[in-house]
Amino acid sequence: MRKKHLQNQTFDFALVEKWLENYFLDPLTAYYDQTQFQIDLFETDQEWIVEAILSDFEASDIQVYIEEKKLTISAAKHPPYTTHYKRSRSIDFPFYIKEQDISAGFTNGRLEVFISKTKKGSGKNRYITLP
Questions:
Q1: 82, pLDDT greater than 70
Q2: N or C: which terminus of the chain has fewer CB atoms within 10 Å of its end residue's CB?
């Protein structure tokens, strides 16, 4: 099994690859893409990228929360809008993401969450601030 050590955390790349495959083949993923909002996952040498299509929302409507191995993206429109409109999705990673440096950006209805493979984060459960 291929394992890579990055600043005191071991990533089992075979496990991550299997997790990605299972995520995209899971029928619930397609269901949530249709009923909540679409999420895509990408991997580069330096980071994992979670992309969410939230074209009905503004940056101020969106919350990104990190808890242990879980990333939760929530978006809600509150009054004075005519209806309360809320959407939420969570992704359970096969490793502790709270240990990693995480940043996010929101442009043109597209949220991108960047989870570093090499930089350490606070190690605490936390909200990620959108610029």
A1: no
A2: N
